[in-house]
Amino acid sequence: MPRFTPLLLLLSLALISSPALAQDEEEPLTEADGWRSSLTGQLAFSQAAYSNWQEGGLDALSFTAGTNGIFERLTGRFKQTHNARLAFGLVKQDTLQFRKSDDVIRYGFELQYTGTGVFQPTFATNIRTQFAPGYDYDPNPETTPSLAAFIVPGERLKVSDFFAPAIWTQSLGITYDPDRWYIARLGFATKETIVLIDRLRPVYGNALDESIRVEAGLEFIAEAQRELFTNVFLQSRFGLFQAFNQVGDTAPDLTFENLLTLKVNDWLNTNLEFVTLYDRDTIDEVQLKEVLSIGIGITLL
User: pTM higher than 0.70, yes or no?
Assistant: First the structure.
């Protein structure tokens, strides 16, 4: 079972249950609105250099670029929502080569039938992968036993790449959508774990000859998008997937993504991303990711 720290629980509750200092609710989407779109871009950059600096320090260079978009449209009684996020970052310290600091490709699509009130039949699909290879720069046979034969002392070990893995889900169920800042969805789902590089397949729970592992189960998704305070925006997504063949034996797969944006002015933003993952097929520990960036934010749509 995953172990959650009190700090993570407090942060989660604080973000989702912030008091009513938020902006007024968005107007309900209508067919006359056409596409209601939101697309933003972010570019962050930092650099430090030293020469004869007696107090010490390391030369450093880093940058992160990304986009985040939501596109919605109502046609008759059907509402479609497209949600995409792309991000990529590199960092270089002293004499080390550039290393990846952030890498996300995520796309989601939902089709809801709105003729049944706030409880709406829904088909949804979501896929998540990355752009570039990921490496373990201090590999240990005990933490990655399936790759022990590929470990060379003093050399980095490739542990991921584009579509290695990719997690793709499809679900059919019911969405609770009160046309406010949050929704929740429950449905029957299939989940595919795609690993195109054969030697990396056991790392993510696939057999060596299994490029795609398919599981069937139940999926629960809760999403929130809100201005918590003036110029402080939250996008949060909480997901659970319980495979039928693992009921009672393994805790559900969990994904909890939070992106907090603080707008300093029309072009300067601070972003805090906090992601929690749990998938026992990969590792029997909670995986945590935190990225803090300050940079230029551009509203594209």
Answer: yes
